[in-house]
Design brief:
It contains no helices and 11 strands. It is mainly β and 119 residues long. A hairpin with a 5-residue loop joins strand 4 and strand 5.
């Protein structure tokens, strides 16, 4: 059974950068025909797709967030990473990593990690 666990600093000051990690267990992030996504839920709002990475390392970014977003992976640790630069208070959200199938349908969610951008 694949499990995803997000981690991050929790609180970040505006204009700073924040890095989040998603540790995957029970399966490999290089398994064929899978995508690994970062998604966030803004306060009082729905979910927003941030970016995803295919098993071969190809990436896609939400155009609205691309300029401040970077995703990467460490295959030796079976981890994914999300970096947000120059955050604003509008970045405050719960950030999730998720696994999807080849049609980008989510089949596994992490529990999420809260990021609060505040001075």
């Amino acid at each position: 059974q694949v499990r995803l666990q997000e981690s991050g600093p929790g609180l970040v000051k505006p204009s700073q950068s924040v890095s989040l990690t998603c540790t995957v267990s029970g399966g490999s992030i290089t398994t064929a025909y899978t995508y690994w996504a970062w998604i966030r839920q803004l306060p009082g709002k729905g979910f927003e797709w941030i970016a995803h990475m295919f098993a071969n390392g190809d990436t896609y970014y939400n155009p609205a967030l691309q300029s401040r977003t970077s995703i990467s992976r460490d295959t030796s640790k079976n981890e994914l990473a999300l970096r947000l630069s120059s955050v604003t208070p509008e970045a405050t959200a719960v950030y999730f990593c998720a696994r999807t199938d080849n049609n980008l349908l989510i089949d596994t969610w992490g529990q999420g990690t809260q990021v609060t951008a505040s001075s």
